[in-house]
Design goal:
mainly alpha; two-stranded antiparallel ribbon
């Protein structure tokens, strides 16, 4: 790869990490989902998923230092503990689920896009819950706190399976009667717990296989992590200037676009 290609690689990945991280400080969703397909442009998918998971954890640890003290401990216990247990099962299933055949493939102007079971399932769930989130009537519905463990199980399982944990986590926590700072802090700490669990399973599973890691990857992962840190700091500066409804709208629109692209194989 020439200097221009390497420069473009760094620019695209770092800018993606910066802006995605800033937005996820409000929503708890987006960095892994956005960063993984971007890394997949430059590296093999298994390498991209592993690298994105490392950046995601590092970024969440940084955000925890910024806002984690606001986490609601009672909600955290009821949500995050079931989430990490479910994440272990989801991550374990990924090692076998990845061998399932492609459901369909098509070409648009050259590149071949594949619709896989994981992409289709998670994408449709994201779109469905996002439409509910943006519906005016749904805004008035309060989910009983007794469903928090169920939300943790769903979020953790799909987080371990494909890395897309933020959508379901936001859907349940945002209705848990938390203040804005509590919502963000609880979401971030929950993400850290799930990330540690799934990375442990990844390390014991197919990530111990002999993948050829390109030499530039280590530097790129470090640069992406630093960019994500900067994005989280930028997001924290904006936190008091953004209303919770504005956060919901940004999250909902982002989830719909990403979910649709994911389900049809564009991402």
């Amino acid at each position: 790869m020439g200097f221009r290609g390497l420069l473009m690689e760094y620019a695209v990945v770092c800018l993606t990490a910066f802006f995605a991280s800033g937005l996820t400080l409000f929503s708890g969703f987006g960095l892994g989902t956005i960063l993984t397909p971007v890394l997949s442009i430059f590296f093999p998918v298994p390498v991209a998923v592993g690298a994105a998971a490392v950046v995601h954890l590092a970024n969440n640890l940084f955000k925890s230092a910024l806002i984690g003290r606001h986490a609601n401990k009672k909600v955290l216990v009821r949500f995050a503990l079931p989430a990490v247990i479910a994440a272990l099962f989801g991550a374990s299933l990924l090692t076998s689920f990845s061998s399932l055949p492609v459901l369909a493939s098509y070409s648009l102007g050259g590149p071949v896009h594949e619709i896989t079971p994981v992409k289709l399932t998670i994408g449709l769930l994201i779109v469905f819950f996002s439409f509910l989130e943006l519906a005016p009537r749904f805004e008035k519905i309060a989910i009983d706190p007794k469903y928090l463990p169920l939300g943790g199980v769903l979020s953790g399982f799909f987080g371990g399976l494909s890395g897309h944990q933020g959508a379901l986590r936001s859907m349940f926590l945002i209705r848990a009667g938390l203040a804005k700072e509590e919502f963000i802090g609880t979401s971030v700490v929950s993400a850290v717990i799930v990330d540690i669990g799934r990375l442990t399973v990844y390390g014991l599973g197919f990530y111990t296989a002999s993948f050829t890691v390109p030499p530039p990857l280590k530097g790129l992962v470090l640069a992406a992590a630093l960019s994500a840190f900067a994005g989280a700091f930028w997001g924290k500066k904006l936190m008091k200037k953004v209303t919770l409804r504005a956060v919901q709208i940004v999250v909902g629109i982002t989830l719909i676009l990403l979910g649709a692209g994911l389900s049809i194989g564009l991402i």
